[in-house]
Prior knowledge:
The chain has about 750 residues and is α/β, with parallel strands linked by helices. Helix content is about 55%, strand content about 20%. The site of one calcium ion (CA) has 5 residues, from strand 20 and strand 21.
Amino acid sequence: MRSIFTVIFLLLIITLTVCSFMARRSPRAIGSSVAALIGTLTLPLTGNLLIVASTSALLPTVGYYVYFLGMDFVVLTLIHFTFRYCGLSWSKKWMRDLVLAIVFLDIAQYVANPFLGQAFGTECIIVEGYPYYRLVPHLGQAFHRVLDYGILAAVILIFAYKTFRSARIDSEKYSVIFITLVLFSLWQTFFIFSRTPVDRSMIGFAFFGLLIYYFALHYRPMRLLDSMLAGIASDMSESLYFFDASGQCIWANPSGLDLAGITDKELEQVPKKLTSLFGICELREDGSVKKIIGIGEDAKYYVLERRVIKDENGRTAGSFLSVRDNTEEQRQFRQELYNTTHDTLTGLHTREYLYHEVRELFLENPEETYMVIFVDVRGFKIVNDVFGSAFGDYAIQRIAEWIQSSLCKRGVCGRIAGDTFGVCIPVNEFDPHCVEQDLSNFEVKKNHLSHHVLVHLGIYVVTEKDLDVSVMFDRAHLALSSIKEDYQKHVAYYDDAMRSKALWDQKISAQLRDAIATKQLRPYLQPIVDLTGTVVGAEALVRWLHPEHGFLSPGTFIPVFEKNGMISEIDRYMWRCACELLARWKNTSLFLSVNISPRDFYFMDVPEELKNLVKEFGIEPARLRIEITETVMMTDVEKRMEIFHDLKRAGFIVEMDDFGSGYSSLNLLKDMPVDVLKIDMMFLSKSRNEYKAKTIVQNIIHLSDELGIGSLTEGVETPNQYQILSDMGCKLFQGYYFAKPMPVEDFEKYVFPDKAVS
Ligand code: C2E
Ligand code: CA
Ligand code: CA
């Protein structure tokens, strides 16, 4: 019998040691406390092993010491485990110290026992024919028992309290330990009072350790788990339904019951209700579906997710459906989509979205012929500046409305930029007559303000559908450039000539600087003669000897550079050339007239530039004549007037070019500090009424005489014209009759036939 116990104790010690080792490696926080508790439990077991297995006097005595001291350590690790497991902490530090002190006092009394013998002794009895050393407790042993059982009782009480007072889902975790402790205590008590010769209570201790190991580390409290899952599922805003294999609903959370409009007693109605709500009843497939219920403002969006639950053999055990209301997300998504694809002011498509929609339109109706229209509001900046941006916004909205309601009845339209819009419609939808009528009188009225807005349309009939949509709109935009701001015509169509023209403009603009540097651009001189026919000066006119396109007259490139402002670079160059020539002809009285474009005033300080030039070349300012056209005076009159005064003060002679061809205002002459009127014969030659033309020229010459202004007639082509103009009192003449514009060398030969000029 004793040998059986020896084997049992040995096995239990090994098992507990292994469990302690595994508990230490457990990822759970409580692992180290469990390891300590069952690790210390091996000590009293070892003590008991020695007592049971030995027949000599010494080993059982050592065994008793190992046993009692071991129990003291067990008490300490049990307290530690209990506190950790129950989430307690010492409210007062001294209480912990007191418990420690008592335990150490007990340890001390065992240390003193060999000398004082106050705790216990042993007596030899014969069990199964062999000596067995039984414990003879003394007074000190009572202290040990009170301590051990007191602490054990306290621990049981703590677990009892936790079991009965915790929330239901928690109590299971405490109750298993509580029951283990009670059972162990009963077992222990039984052996204390039965006084069987061999103490077997340690078997109970060992099982207690193993149960703690299992319950604290490996047992998953199912009820806790169930209640937790059910709690979470109940609180979820999603509607959840669980079905058994036959499709019967076995559980639904409150949100699910709400959505189906039933109580938890009517779960059998769930499949029917869901079918009528969402039109689905087939739950045997995994996957998600999006559903809309309700139409219009109240439309609600739901995302339904179905999962089939299989058992370990792959058989369908049931299924699960979650229904999530995603109306708000959908609303936000739609709003964001709308915001990124629609212009806030007009509600029309943004440029990118318009281009996308145009593409879609072409794909939808590949047979249809479309046109893209570029809508431009002319001078819109002025509307904003004069009437304020609120009126400007209002005007943009009215134009957008017109586009939507009249122009783009069947097609797509959008706002391309501030005051430009884009439209794409089938060609046969466009009614030019109606559009012209609408645009000829497009008035925007707000409160007491009203403004006639000039709207122009450039149209590209889409002949190449493969083109980038942006290129199509570029073409439509290009068409706009052919519309003059004359309020007569509001619509222009793109043609390939426009494209070639745009390409040409681009090409020569890119080449200009290089052309100046390499002297492809050069002055041609057209002589100016006096009454006797003597050459007194010349007008410098630019020519481009293009390496690829040959001789280019100013008509082919001046307007391009007038438009993009690069004209000032040509003029600056031409003035310098003129000054160089005048410096070369310093011993003569010849003058040179140079042209000044109205655009020059935007890009440079014209008087300053000219003053510096004459200074640099050391020439008299009066020999450099400045030709300006009346158009210069159309804006900034005061400032421009000052500029001319400045030029005159510096000694330059100012000529008014093309007088009579533009919006001549005789009134201007009163204040304009001009020295010479350059009368354009060409405008007269076009006149059918020669008599009237003559009278006008006659009067201009008289008028200039009266005002003390000199006169020069250009465009003189016949001896007859020369004669008549001379008779009228004109002093200077220029025209093909005398000579065409010619290269500098030719001019020099023409004027100085005998001498070479150096
Ligand atoms: P513009 O200043 O009025 O120059 C006179 C134009 O009339 C010149 O044309 C000249 O060749 C032409 N012309 C002269 N006499 C006759 C004639 O008897 N009959 C006819 N039919 N035409 C005659 P061009 O050289 O082609 O210049 C055209 C315009 O280009 C000039 O008109 C001027 O406005 C501009 N331009 C020429 N060179 C320059 C320049 O260096 N700078 C600026 N800003 N503009 C220039
Ligand atoms: Ca001129
Ligand atoms: Ca002229």
